Amino acid sequence: xxxxxxxxxxxxxxxxxxxxxxxxxxxxxxxxxxxxxxxxxxxxxxxxxxxxxxxxxxxxxxxxxxxxxxxxxxxxxxxxxxxxxxxxxxxxxxxxxxxxxxxxxxxxxxxxxxxxxxxxxxxxxxxxxxxxxxxxxxxxxxxxxxxxxxxxxxxxxxxxxxxxxxxxxxxxxxxxxxxxxxxxxxxxxxxxxxxxxxxxxxxxxxxxxxxxxxxxxxxxxxxxxxxxxxxxxxxxxxxxxxxxxxxxxxxxxxxxxxxxxxxxxxxxxxxxxxxxxxxxxxxxxxxxxxx
Amino acid sequence: xxxxxxxxxxxxxxxxxxxxxxxxxxxxxxxxxxxxxxxxxxxxxxxxxxxxxxxxxxxxxxxxxxxxxxxxxxxxxxxxxxxxxxxxxxxxxxxxxxxxxxxxxxxxxxxxxxxxxxxxxxxxxxxxxxxxxxxxxxxxxxxxxxxxxxxxxxxxxxxxxxxxxxxxxxxxxxxxxxxxxxxxxxxxxxxxxxxxxxxxxxxxxxxxxxxxxxxxxxxxxxxxxxxxxxxxxxxxxxxxxxxxxxxxxxxxxxxxxxxxxxxxxxxxxxxxxxxxxxxxxxxxxxxxxxx
Lengths: 291, 291
Known about the structure:
The complex is a heterodimer of chains A (291) and B (291). With 291 residues, chain A is mainly alpha-helical. Chain A has helices at 2-8, 17-42, 46-66, 70-88, 93-122, 126-133, 143-160, 162-170, 172-177, 182-204, 209-223, 227-251, 264-285.
């Protein structure tokens, strides 16, 4: 038992403060991503989530240049982009595709510029890797309260608009006929998605952030048939994948090829992907089951 | 039926549409449409695809502003009558991946517009179960709505619309895409349940024949204008010819009513049911009988 424990948790895991910070930030990000992600998938807004993730690269790289936590940039550009996407017309399906495409292209162009400046001024590729793929063990502990401050409003949006969002994802007309302001609810949800993506970007990097947003939700939607259970299950799966990923990444410092650790992002995303495959198989064996 | 009227309605009507005109992008969609629906009345809104049925229902729901005219629901302006109207929108695509069971969707009919996370209560559960039972949907109550057949989905949508005990039920083409048997079942279910709940019904259809046995009155829409009254008052050559603006014939074929216009050398079925339209279409006449 204690041998197994030592194999799983490499020496120094529980005493390491970068690990504590990673567990805290990862836990917050996973909780928010799982819950908001369920509504992202439910509402068919995964593509918007992807665009917001790409755009967070812009803010993240700008923050790096400015010398502040990338979380500010991730969240700032995300929320701004959510507003612009709503203005251009995210409510109509075709308008939505165009709106996201245009905003995404412009943002990524800026990101290319910022990352280039970042790389040439510091003559290191570290910035690009940190922004794009995350670097959880290097986050300063001061970011934890900031992550909580960005996570809470996102969770609040889902809690307050739970039923209107659910109803309008079944049918916007149905919701509007009951007096729901579909546009306002949609904008609030998009901002929540932007905040969740920015937290996920801190955890697994901007490029992989949608994996944490959409993956656990996709697994949960295959395993359960009620919105409430799907939301809770997605949150649990996201937190579990993140924490197990952190444990494995810490263990990997003793692994080949170079004994300096594999990226946390790899483990988290791989765990989510394996979970999805397992859920797919389980779902096939009891399709349309009531649970 | 007059005995069921409440003292609060000024006009005594559940729905009063008065001189409603709608222009969209400069094009007239509805032109001075007036009619009323009394307490407990079952009224068919008949018209070809594109006649303006959906636009009219959206005006009544307060989702589409009228260019001229007014709508009142139990004596109140449409925008304030929302809580009194149940709505079954035109065929909506329900995704099987959506974790929403029949039971959940009916529950959203009760409180889908409310803010906050729903508190599970025995009263709410019982109301939902009763409503599911009333539309004979209990046996698929725990299945995802996306996995149900068209007829089953309509039952769930009707339960969703009726659970809040509205005074008026609006249904937009609920029989479209249903096979004849399911359509008959939905109609008799509607006739039964709405007379039990004493709710007035306005149901739109492009095929009037399945509806005629249960409707008290019909509103016939053509070229944006409306004629209303009992079937024998409206489905007449003089009335409909005036409405269309050119001569039409009303034929009675094996107990089914067809409205037919002369078009060049052939003729066109303007209203009737699909089966009759099929067999009466010149292309379907036996070879050699065509001119």
